[in-house]
Amino acid sequence: MKVIGIIGWKNSGKTFIVSKIIKKLKSMNYKVASIKHAHHNFEIDHENTDSYIHRKAGSEQVIISSAKRWAKIIELKNSKEKTLKQLLEQLDKTDYVIVEGFKNENHPKIEILRVESKSYLYDKISNVVCLISDKKIDSNLPQFKKKEIDLIINFILNEI
Predict the structure, then answer these.
(1) Of 4-8, 22-26, 44-48, which gets the smallest average pLDDT?
(2) The pLDDT value given to residue 4
(3) DSSP notation for 49-98
(4) Residue 152: which domain range?
């Protein structure tokens, strides 16, 4: 499995680019998985759903299952957050894993830059392999515009 990270500051368009990359790879018959890092408390089940009620009642592990999908929720309490490696081990066989966030982990990363941004990550993180921005950046890294999804995919397939 090949792991490709998408990093950038808040509201830079990471999720937009991730969704385009996933959609394009999937259309090319690749098996694609994704991992999204959240820096905050988040909910995937909501108040008044059965899984929410189970979890709030004290269940430390909740599995929601249907004919369409399943999800497992684990309450970490005060234990350490899982590393990217540990999360990757949870995935079934896949061709590509698109990782949004986890900027300090050791996998190739693509940085998304906002036009107005004056602060970049690629000059602080050694494994950024290309940049996506709608303005020209003074860097030797390959650069693509946000709308150049086919070129970005070719770069991923041939260089990562």
Answers:
(1) 44-48
(2) 97
(3) SHHHHHHHHT-SEEEEE-SS-EEEEE--TTSPPPPHHHHHTTSPS-SEEE
(4) 2-40+77-159
